[in-house]
Amino acid sequence: MRHRKHNHQLGVKSAHRISLIANLSCALIENGRIKTTLAKARALRPAIEKLITLAKKAHLAEDVAQKLHYRRLAIARIRDKKAVKKLFDELVEQFANRNGGYTRIYKLAIPRLGDAADMALIEFVEESSGKKPKKKKASKTKQKVEAPEEKNESQDSHAEKAAETDAQSKASAEDAETAEDAETAEDAETAEDAETAEDAVTAEEAETTEEADEEKTSDNEEVSEEEDKK
Q1: Are 53 and 98 in contact (CB under 8 A)?
Q2: Are 59 and 96 contacting, i.e. CB atoms less than 8 angstroms apart?
Q3: Strands (E), the chain
Q4: How large is the average pLDDT for residues 184-193?
Q5: 41, 20 in Cβ contact below 8 A?
Q6: Quick one: which of 10, 20, 27, 17 has its CA closest to 123?
Q7: Angle, nearest 10°, between helix axes 81-89 and 14-31?
Q8: Cα separations (Å) of 61 from 92, 155, 215?
Q9: Contact at 8 Å (CB) between 103 and 125?
């Protein structure tokens, strides 16, 4: 009997419909989300979820022959070995702890241009890591009390930054002063060395002039003695 067998005909023959569902299944397995018409998404949903059930059965089976059997059934339905391998080896762990409801459909607001067909997104449901704990709402009084503390912390942080900058500027100024003192000390030492060198030169000149004067006086005395003898 063909009772309840007339769902999701999509206006095409059976061979065309089987190929269409197989291609949509491969695209969904490879990409994780596809955009199609709402009617095709609703027709794809039971087909892809049956494939995921086969993958889960193969994942839980211990017999190698049984795993291979489930894999061959999936290949016969979607006719793509790469997609079946990805589903059975990678994606099956995502649905290991989920009992049905492996896909979700989002109906889009903007219809398709040309024939105005309703569009939709169909995607896999990701495994949730667990419910997040609800945050307790703080009372208004606590919020008012906490606000000035935050301001004080920000002010303290600004004051610390200002103190650090002042300390750095003072340190740089002290370094500059020490450098200037060192330069002045070096200049003073060089000036003293120059003065001592000049004094030494003048002393040598004075000694030479004294020696010259003595020689002249001695010569004059000798000349005067010779004249007296004559």
Answers
A1: no
A2: yes
A3: 33-37, 103-107, 119-124
A4: 65
A5: no
A6: 27
A7: 50
A8: 13, 65, 131
A9: yes
Position 82, amino acid: K
Element at 204 (helix H, strand E):
helix 140-229
Q: How many helices (H) and strands (E) does the chain have?
A: 5, 3
CB 105 within 8 A of CB 42: yes
Q: Residue 107 is encoded by which pair of tokens?
A: 């109906």
**Total-model pTM:** 0.56
pLDDT at 131 over 60: no
d(CA 18, CA 227) in angstroms, rounded, equals 155
The residues near 110 (Cβ < 8 Å, ≥ 6 apart) are 119
Q: Indicate if the pLDDT at residue 137 is higher than 70.
A: no
pLDDT at 79 over 80: yes
